[in-house]
Amino acid sequence: MSSDEAGNLAIRVRDLVTHYGERQILKGIDFDVRPAEIMVIMGGSGSGKSTLMRHLLALEAATSGSVEVLGEDIGRLGTRARAELSKKIGVAFQSGALFSSLSVGENIQLPLAEHTKLNAATKAIMTRMKLEVVDLAGFEDLMPSELSGGMIKRAALARAIIMDPKILFWDEPSAGLDPVVAASLDDLILRLRDAMQMSIVVVTHELESAFKIADRITILDQGHILAVGTVDEIKNSDNERIQNILHRRTEEEILDADEYLRRLTGITVEGSPAL
Fold first, then answer.
1. Do 82 and 175 belong to one domain?
2. 81 in any annotated domain
3. Which residues pair with 20 in a beta bridge?
4. Is residue 135 included in any domain, yes or no?
5. HSE-CB for 202 with a 13 A CA cutoff
6. Residues 224 and 257 in one domain
7. Distance CA 109, CA 103 (A)
8. Global pTM value
9. 175-213 in b/e burial notation, b at 16+ Cβ within 10 A?
10. Looking at the DSSP assignment, which residues form a beta bridge with residue 140?
11. Are 157 and 163 in contact (CB under 8 A)?
12. Stretch (H or E) spanning 82
C-alpha cells in the first residue's frame, strides 16, 4: 500500500498487540477501513472482536503497534485532540444504552450537549431530522421504556449520527431482533452509508446480515486476522476454519463420530486404547 493510499484510510491498524495481564489477546493485528466502506468484523467467542473495537475507540492502551483513525494516531493524542476526534465518531451499542430517565429526544441530543453550544431550538430541529432518517419521526417525546427492541436500536443509531460522524461503529445491530426488523436495520445501514458517505464498522454474528451489508468482511480467530475479503471471497472460501466460524460450528460438531468418541474416552471404535 502506498503512503497516499494509507493516508486516505478511515482506519489504519498496524501490528496491534495487546494483553490482559499475562494473556495475549491481539497478536499483531493489521486492519484497514476505507472511506465510505462498510466493514463487518466476525469471529467466535474470545476471538478478539470486542478488544479490537475498544482499541479503535481509544478505550484500551495497546502493548505495541499503532491505531490511526481519520489520519490521527490515537495513541499519541492528548486529551483535547482526542475529544476533537470523538466528535467525528459515532457509536451505537448492542443494548442501545439509552438513559431510561430521559426521553428519546433528550437521549439523542446528549452528544450535542457535550460537544456544542447550540441553542435548544437548533438541537430540537437536528433531533427531529435524525429521527426521520432512522424512521422514528415523531417519537422524540416517548420514554425508552415505551419503545420496542428495534426502535431502541434505531434511537441509539440516531444518537450516534447526530454529529454527522465520519465513522460509525455499531455493535451487534441485529442481536435479539426478529428477522423482519433485523432486515430493515440492514437496509437502514446501507442507506446511511450512501447518504452520509461514512465509514461503518459493524461487529455481528449474523451471517445473513453480514453478507447483505458488507463491502468487506474481516474474520478474527484467536487474536489473529484469519481472513479479509469481499462477501463473495469469504462466502466461497475453501478454508474450513473460515466456514466453521461463519456458520458457528464448534469443534465437536465438525469432528466425525469416531474421532469425537476417541477424544472423550481415549478408546478407538474397535475397543482398544487409542495410542
1. yes
2. yes
3. 23
4. no
5. 30
6. no
7. 10
8. 0.83
9. bebeeebbeebbebbeebbeebebbbbbbbbbbebbbbb
10. none
11. no
12. helix 79-86
